[in-house]
Amino acid sequence: MPLTPDTTYVHLAHDGSVTPVPGGEAFWGLPPEQLSAFDQGWLITEFECTQDWSTWERHPQGDEFVYLLSGDAALVLALAEGETVVRLTGRAAQLVPRGVWHTARVFAPSRMLFVTRGEGTEHRPVG
């Protein structure tokens, strides 16, 4: 049966195994101790973004691959030399370096695919 990454996430474990898991609120609503089981390895998720993100995030244990499948959005990266804005339109991708705070501005409804190492992920409000 085919998977759709917006409703079924995929966890890629260090040992090479792949596990599909229910996505969306079914995933993010799990208790923290169950979510932590996905910290090791990589998580593939897809989201529709219709507005600017309300938080910054960073992933201290690995780079993140962000793939814009459709739409118009910009990733804002808080680099040592200052904020860098990377505009993505149509189909485009960006690598977010390990440990870099980042957020997104959305100019048109956008579908984004993320490949993320979740261990230690941090969030803080924008603004």
TrEMBL record:
It comes from the Bacteria. This is Cupin. It comes from Pelomonas margarita.
